[in-house]
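Lecture notes, part 5. Sequence design as translation. It can be helpful to think of inverse folding as translation between two languages: the language of shapes and the language of residues. The source text, in structure tokens, appears below.
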């Protein structure tokens, strides 16, 4: 028997799910995490989620369910970090394919339950947009989470919904979530972060990184790359809250509208009706604006010359002064890399520079800014 968990939103939710599983059941307890291959355009230049046919090297775990392993690989031009996550996380990873809507996902959840020999699934979401009502002005990516809830209901499987780090994904504010959540079910600690510690050396997830920072005791204003305003780490940030599936479905109106959806296009139309937007359409528009993926451009660069390395350090110092003056105390690696347009070689050089000149700045997985910008 294996524990069965579902990372509700894709992206970095599998990291949080692995951490929550380890905290609640022990890092060595066998588990399968179901997750979407639905990642940001900086990782995957193809809009929307990926499906099994977008990968090589997956392993069948049922008629429609496939496992992603370290030997799996995305088929170009698609990109995915799931194979590397499969290498670094202890639980197995199962690929959720939302192209069959909630009905198709329910079938995959049933196959996963049979594979694991269980009759219960723990749904895990970092940030809390799994409890979005659909009208929040800061909501950006509700579809994957709502489909997960709708699919669990359609599958008829016993399910619990866990919200970790309320508000950390900058979609539903902490203040709006706390009245819905009740008392914490568990508070993550620094020890709970150890199984996922090395993932943040390479994975760009910001919400999961903020959760890890909160579990390690960091409090204060944190700047992320893809949010309209900074996130503040509070005493509630390392908490995990548990709700019933029925209660979550009462709150999430989009999940109800997706109950009988049989394909992704139908689900996208439901999102337009309930939330007023389609995140997939937004991804298509953004991909068209970006043109050639940044990852491809970065891969073509060579290691920076000494003069260029100096320029990077100077650019960081100027950027740090501006950012610190706005009241931000901590930033993610991704924000540094994207706002300074650093490729991997430049980012590694900056890490080495800060590690020598100001080692106290690195509070993994975040970076502490100098209060006065010096």
């Amino acid at each position: 028997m294996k524990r069965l968990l579902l990372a509700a939103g894709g992206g970095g939710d599998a990291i949080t799910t692995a951490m929550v599983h380890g905290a609640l059941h022990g890092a060595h307890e066998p588990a399968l995490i179901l997750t979407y291959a639905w990642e940001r355009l900086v990782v995957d230049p193809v809009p929307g989620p990926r499906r099994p046919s977008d990968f090589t090297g997956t392993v069948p775990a049922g008629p429609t369910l496939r496992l992603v392993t370290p030997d799996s690989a995305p088929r170009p031009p698609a990109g995915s970090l799931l194979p590397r996550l499969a290498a670094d996380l202890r639980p197995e990873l199962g690929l959720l394919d939302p192209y069959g809507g909630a009905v198709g996902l329910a079938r995959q959840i049933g196959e996963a339950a049979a594979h694991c020999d269980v009759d219960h699934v723990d749904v895990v979401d970092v940030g809390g947009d799994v409890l979005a009502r659909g009208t929040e002005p800061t909501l950006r990516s509700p579809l994957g989470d709502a489909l997960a809830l709708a699919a669990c209901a359609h599958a008829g499987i016993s399910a619990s919904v866990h919200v970790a780090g309320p508000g950390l994904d900058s979609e539903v504010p902490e203040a709006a979530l706390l009245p819905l959540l009740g008392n914490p079910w568990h508070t993550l600690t620094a020890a709970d972060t150890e199984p996922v510690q090395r993932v943040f050396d390479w994975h760009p997830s910001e919400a999961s990184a903020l959760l890890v920072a909160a579990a390690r005791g960091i409090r204060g204003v944190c700047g992320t790359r893809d949010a309209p305003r900074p996130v503040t780490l509070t005493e509630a940030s390392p908490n995990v809250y548990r709700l019933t599936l029925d209660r979550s479905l009462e709150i999430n109106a989009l999940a109800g509208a997706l109950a009988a959806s049989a394909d992704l296009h139908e689900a996208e139309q439901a999102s337009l009706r309930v939330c007023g937007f389609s995140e997939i359409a937004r991804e298509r528009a953004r991909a068209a604006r970006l043109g050639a993926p940044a990852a491809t451009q970065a891969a073509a660069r060579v290691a920076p010359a000494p003069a260029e390395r100096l320029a990077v350090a100077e650019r960081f110092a100027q950027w740090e002064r501006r950012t610190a003056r706005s009241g931000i105390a901590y930033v993610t690696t991704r924000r540094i890399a994207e706002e300074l347009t650093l490729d991997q070689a430049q980012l590694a050089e900056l890490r080495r520079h800060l590690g020598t000149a100001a080692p106290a700045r690195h509070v993994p997985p975040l970076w502490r800014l100098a209060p006065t910008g010096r």
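The translated text above is only one of many valid answers, since several sequences can fold into similar shapes. Confidence is low (pLDDT under 50) at residues 292-304.
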